[in-house]
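User: Quick sanity check before I run a bigger batch. Here is a single chain. Can you write out its predicted 3D structure?
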Amino acid sequence: MRIGVVLAAVTGLALAAYLVFYVGFGPVLAAIAAVGWGGFALLCLYGAALFAPLGTAWFVLIPARENPDLVTFVWGRAVRDCAGEILPFSQVGGMVIGARAAILRGLSGPLAFASTVVDITVEMVAEIAFVLGGLAILVTRVPPSAASGQLARALAMGLFAASLGAAAFVVLQRRSFSAIVRWMARVLPEAAGRAEAVQLSFAELYDAPSRLAGSLAIHLTCWLATALWAWFTVRLIGKPLSISSIVAIEAILYGIRSVAIFVPAAIGVQEAAYALLGPLFGLPAPAALALSLLKRARDIAIGVPILLAWQLAEGGHALKASRDTTRLVVDE
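Assistant: Done. Predicted structure follows.
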């Protein structure tokens, strides 16, 4: 594991712990306890159910001639998110593992890689729209102050940069990958075939605007569903807020998290963002931190069994490959 990732994780964990004790461990714990085991079980069920539409957003990108299996993409998305949230590496590693999970269920490697990247790109565009909505609510609903003004300006600049980044990312996938294929044909000819297959998958995925639009619509719905989860959680805590305030908090939070993509699970970043955003919208800091910790507890409760199942699938695949190799050697 790279030392930078370890340092980021340790620093983030220390920041999260500091915030909890600075705000007050007792009030944060009381807010969590108010949810109760029954409430926490409902939060976990809701969180697990979100994998279905998220996987569907990936699924609808796939051409019908591939005869895609919806379960494959729901499972791959579940593994992607769980790995990114609870394993000790950045969210990029979770994306790779999610694609691998889909490959184990029969999806071709080039299509798994290309469709994962396109799905992430479409989700990024939907997130930009979601954060833009959060910015609009911040500007129109929160009383002007130095903190809200600075946050609004930072968000506006971040959205502009993210829009440029998303556009550049699409151009890279559509135009620049062909140059990479030509370079590999000269330098690594044995890998050029796989790279060309990925390029063809990119082209086919982007040449289907109706599938892209469908995926975008589902992703927008999923972003709103994450805000609804947070709205339900704060009601269980006993600090109900309007749905618009929760949408703004969650939208701005995920905008901040996207900047910290290389911090494992955005540890510390998420807690600091909640501690800042909550009071701006009328959510006390202890309740905001409780919301963050409940979200992490939900991720662990859902993620551990999913990742254990993925590891069993990986082990079974490796064992089968070993047996096939042994059988081949014996036959020869």
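Residues 285-331 form the longest helix (47 residues).

User: Great, the batch can go ahead then.
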